[in-house]
Amino acid sequence: MLQLEHMKEGEVLEMTVKRHWVVYIMIALYFLVGVIISTTSLFLLSFAGWVALLNIVFWLFFSIFLYIQWLNHELDLYIITNNRIVSVEQISFLNRAVSECNLGQVQEVNSQTKGLFANVLHYGTLSIQTAWATATMVMDFAPEAMAAARKVLNIVDTYRDNQNK
Questions:
Q1: How much is the pTM?
Q2: Cα separations (Å) of 84 from 12, 79, 96, 110, 125?
Q3: How is the beta sheet containing 95-102 ordered, strand by strand?
Q4: Overall fold of domain 15-165
Q5: DSSP-derived secondary structure letter, 136
Q6: pLDDT band, very low/low/confident/very high, at 4 (cuts 50, 70, 90)
Q7: Which one, 27, 32, 106, 116, has least CB within 10 Å?
Q8: pLDDT tens digits for range 129-151
Q9: Distance of CA 48 to the CA centre of its chain
Q10: Domain boundaries, the chain
């Protein structure tokens, strides 16, 4: 089970939200495009030594690109406890933004599902608007975005009910 560092006394992990598995299909499509470009260049330009060298250099840079794309999607995460929301967003390679917000500062939770694939595969955009320095936390390709939004709102309501007692 995922555990946060520096959790307060009585703080409990309620849910985590990671990206939907469909992002891996997108990365596989990138790989397929790379294979098509690579094999096409080999057959059109013959099997000359310089073409093979260019192909190796292409795959060197293209594999780094694929790794960075995978990393950017894999490390995005929302962690919701009974006291706060922590958003970890991998912006680019070696560039990560971590935002934390108290549940009492959540103003609005939205979900949006657009398109055929998003409706069939049950993913969408989950956004949490806060009264914090980072006004909105947005996660694209969130699995079960509507159910996750409802669950986050229920956690926020429970938090506010406990604060009002």
A1: 0.80
A2: 10, 8, 19, 17, 20
A3: 13-18, 77-81, 84-92, 95-102
A4: PH-domain like (2.30.29)
A5: E
A6: low
A7: 116
A8: 988 665 788 899 999 999 999 99
A9: 42
A10: 15-165
* Cβ-based neighbours of 111, under 8 Å, separated by 6 or more: 124, 125, 126, 127, 142, 145, 146, 148, 149
Phi/psi for 160 (5° steps) reads -65, -40
How far apart CA 62 and CA 3 sit, in angstroms, is 35
Residue 6 has pLDDT above 60, yes or no: yes
CA-based torsion, 80, 84, 85, 90: positive or negative: negative
pLDDT reading at 3 higher than 70:
no
Separation CA 117–CA 131 (nearest Å): 33
Structure tokens at 63: 């594999």
What ranges in 1-86 are assigned the alpha helix state H?
22-44, 49-74
Q: How many angstroms separate the CA atoms of 10 and 83, rounded?
A: 9
